[in-house]
Design brief:
The protein is an alpha/beta fold and 278 residues long. The chain is built from 12 helices and 8 strands.
Amino acid sequence: MQTLAFIGFGEAGQAFAGALARPGRVTGFDLKDRRAAMATADVEASDRAMALAEAGAVWCLVTADQAEAAARECAAHLAPGALWFDGNSCSPGTKARAAAVIEAAGGRYVDVAIMAPVYPLRAAVPLLVAGPHAVAAEATLTALRMRPEVVGEQVGQASTVKMLRSVMIKGIEALTAECLLAARQAGVEGRVLASLQKSDPGFDWTARSAYNLERMAAHGIRRAAEMREVARTLRELDLPDRMAAATALWQDQLGALGVAMEEGFEPRADALLAALRA
């Protein structure tokens, strides 16, 4: 592998590019451009075809709703045998369709699930990998000083773990917003938080609630796209998607407000409530 390419250069792409063991040339393409971010990470910004032309490995890190489209748009430009690391938070069905496109073009598709926030861990974030090329993928990612774990030989085995985990993680964020924004509005947030703390003393409810509100405000739109894929996953399993669908609505709403977050639960709650009233 002489060239590593990034398709999509948002938070994850920037976190990875600046922390990987360099194979040689690193290229990138992003629909939003982000040339300044690429320059900071020493990545050659290019058009889609040039970024992929000689890449032996490609990280696809777009948004969940664009992952399949990215595979279709990039397939014709892939070098033969290139590993396509699909790190997007998509349903197993979406990943299977993207895999079919990449494999038909002569690439090697790898289902990757990123299992923690990319900051502050960056390249050390835990990864689950699955698919028929998982062993080759593990070797390549390890050489890049990343932390892969093979979980199966079928595309979708890694993404299923990520999707079902998100029911809980992103769902708790949405419950935080619904419960504690209402509590703050009613002037009873102190009592609600104290009651939650008493029920679960091993969990810092105030600090975690502040963190959850910040995550939704900063990344809610991307998280909503992921939760729609979570809902799709549940439907693929012939199960209801009620919680996932509702979570997507909360994530979308708070993410769309564009509110800057200060430190602490109360300032964050107040900023979100003011934006919701407006």
